[in-house]
Amino acid sequence: MNAENSTPEPIVVTAFSERFEHAFAELLGIEGGFVDDPVDRGGATKYGISLRFLKAEGAIDDDLDGYADFDLDMDGDIDGADIRKLTVGDAKSLYKRSFWQALECESFPRPIGEMLFDQGVNGGNHAAKKLLQQAINAVLRAGRYRTIPLKVDGQIGDLTRRSFQSMWERHPEQLVIEYREAVKDRYVAIVRRNPSQAKFLKGWLNRAERLGR
């Protein structure tokens, strides 16, 4: 066919990977819709996005319209009304930028990337990364490896990456189990420090039990 008469190939832009789409759908089913429980330390929450998080993350003005991007009612502040106005699309955008990409979930094998994602949304990215380091150390201890344990500092650098890869090649199932157990321990510790959170413990432990399955 003459190049001048040929129809150009359409340009297809994929905003979300298939893996992220699946992980997001799973997590959205867990997080649910709008909740405003006075005991919840994060404040009003919708689709797992808390008011506390939205105030911190949504204060930027990328579109330069003079309003914070997640001041959705454009009244000059980010409050419960903006949480109520959040759409699934808003949540998806935030999840991808603030958790999936920030944690480099796609660079970890399934289901570790998805477990990091879940815990990033639930407890923050720093906590999610510390849990991975704790899990690696637990596998090292169980295998009696003559290796200095990782410093549990929430920094995923070269040393953590190498240790993870080594343990993943040898003990992938155990690494998943130990991450799950570390999550359970974190939830129990939260309640021990703050007994007002005890009402959430059963649900949290159920969530932990589903991780990586």
Topology of helices and strands:
Blueprint: H1 18-31, E1 45-46, E2 49-50, H2 51-57, H3 80-85, H4 88-100, H5 112-123, H6 125-142, H7 158-170, H8 172-193, H9 201-210
Antiparallel strand pairs: 1-2
What would you note in describing this structure?
The chain is an all-alpha fold and 213 residues long. It folds into two domains: 17-101, no CATH class; 108-213, no CATH class. It is built from nine helices and two strands; from the N terminus they run αββαααααααα. Strands 1-2 form a two-stranded antiparallel sheet. β1 (45-46) and β2 (49-50) form a beta hairpin.
Could you give a quick summary of the protein structure above?
Helix content is 54%, strand content 2%. It has helices spanning 18-31, 51-57, 80-85, 88-100, 112-123, 125-142, 158-170, 172-193, 201-210, and strands at 45-46, 49-50.
Question: What attributes does this structure have?
Answer:
mainly alpha, 213 residues, two-stranded antiparallel ribbon, 2 domains
